[in-house]
Specification:
The protein contains two helices and no strands. By secondary structure, it is mainly alpha-helical. It has one domain. The chain starts with a helix and ends with a helix.
Amino acid sequence: MASNNESHFWDSFMAFTVGAVAGFVLGVLFAPASGKETRAKIKEEALKATESAKESYGKIAQEAEKGIRVVKEKTTEGIDTIREFIDKKKEELTKKEV
């Protein structure tokens, strides 16, 4: 299930990124502006893209941390369950031997 959600996230993220880049390129190419204005627009958009990438990275990192916590919790629960099962079986064997 997590891999399906992860796949959907990456698909959406890539679609957004490709769309943003394509929109920016088309906007710059078709906007009537001087070279100085165009360079200023490119710089501004590059800064926006950088900021957006940083925000996306932060969100991805948070989701990864959540996933790691869940895995740790589930692993701990599994280990505790196995230990309880082993202890129960040890007690049963001890009672049979006596």
